[in-house]
Amino acid sequence: MQDTSSEIDLQAMGERARLASRQLAKATTSAKNAALIAIADALQTHASTILESNRLDLIDGERNGLTPALLDRLDLQKRLDQIADDARNVATLPDPVGLEFEARVLPNGLKVSKRRTPIGVLGVIYEARPNVTVDVATLALKTGNAAIMRGGKETLRTNLALVQVLNDALARHGLPADSIQYIASTDRAYVGQMLKLHRYIDMIIPRGGNTLHEFCREHSTIPVIIGGIGICHVFVDKSAKLDDALNITYNAKTQRPSVCNALDTLLVHQQVAETFLPCVIERLGPAGVTFKAEQRAYQLIGTCAGVELAGPDDFDQEWMSLILGIKVVSDLDEAIDHIRQHSTQHSDSIITEDIDHANQFLNEVDSAAVYVNASTRFTDGSALGLGAEVAVSTQKLHARGPMALEELTTYKWIIIGEGHIRP
């Protein structure tokens, strides 16, 4: 595909995005919702064009040796209707902009509150996930933010087709098309330049592997939201209902193995390991799952097909495929210690009928999403009732977990007096 890098002026893009963000901040909720519905309709109206672009990207990706996990993330062939439905869902959600909270009256009579406002301009850098293009656009629009996006080279055709549809829909509804801009180049130099646009971009959101996150953290002059890298755990406690544990393990690993909230490591209490682990092999093996078992687990299941002894770094891998690490632990404390050592603080779950163990796990596992008796696959904006999301933050400041509408706003202090002066 033609590289248009010589035609790109990032500073001009930033200026247009800043102007668009000021116009969006004044848009009414009804105007934003109408544009969201128009976007959803346009995605389906122009589905053939979008999917043909996506098909060509998939062909190139397979030819260039993309992993099955990356090809799965790139593939929109059966997902475009769901993406359109997600856009419609965002239109139904409450608009956080203008919401006042923590209101109070001080002893001196001053009325004080906080009011939610758009962040301004978002800079989103991502890899082979074209659905992110629509997720970012719809959530940014609803919260009055403009966005400048730069996707991976693997999905350039798809993203350009999507952005054209988005821009046209915005323009038809009287909102600035420059609200959503895309860096139409595969030249990585533009990522570095984008990270220096602190006069125009207010927040950087990287979505990709650890290398991308580290690059953004080290080179950006703009605040960076880190997240989306998930080494996720399920701990099966000695009191667990094993049928539930087996179903949860199967779902967390196989329902969509290429995503960040899929299960990577299964921890099993030693008192149930001899019974439970063969059931795991029997249930997950036919689904194509292979296993990396540490020494104690390997002694129990090492003769089963698809099981090999875990290497020293295997519990630090985000597999993004049908590979599952397995470890037998002596107790809850050892499970928590393992998670502390190997987790990326994304999503971790305990399967237990012991309320004290559940509470200890919730209190001591410091991840963005911590579960009791549920699959880690729910760490997702749509699954948690937030609509779409732009990322899952694993850091501790500003936003943590799925970054949906509220997380794409900031706030200002509102102070109302009656001639007050400070004595």
Fold and architecture overview:
- The chain is α/β, with parallel strands linked by helices and about 425 residues long.
- The chain folds into 2 domains: about 5-225 and about 405-415, 3-Layer(aba) Sandwich (Aldehyde Dehydrogenase, Chain A, domain 1); about 230-380, Aldehyde Dehydrogenase, Chain A, domain 2, CATH 3.40.309.
- It is built from 14 helices and 16 strands.
- It has helices at about 10-25, 30-45, 45-65, 70-75, 80-90, 130-140, 155-170, 190-195, 210-220, 240-255, 270-285, 295-300, 330-340, 355-365; strands at about 100-105, 110-120, 120-125, 145-150, 180, 205, 230-235, 265-270, 290-295, 305-310, 325-330, 345-350, 370, 390-395, 400, 410-415.
- The chain has a 7-stranded parallel beta sheet, with helices on both faces. It has a 4-stranded parallel beta sheet with strand order 5-4-3-6, sandwiched between helices. A 3-stranded antiparallel beta sheet has the order 1-2-16, with no helix packed on it.
- Helix 2 packs antiparallel against helix 5.
- The chain is globular.
- Residues about 1-5 have low confidence and may be disordered.
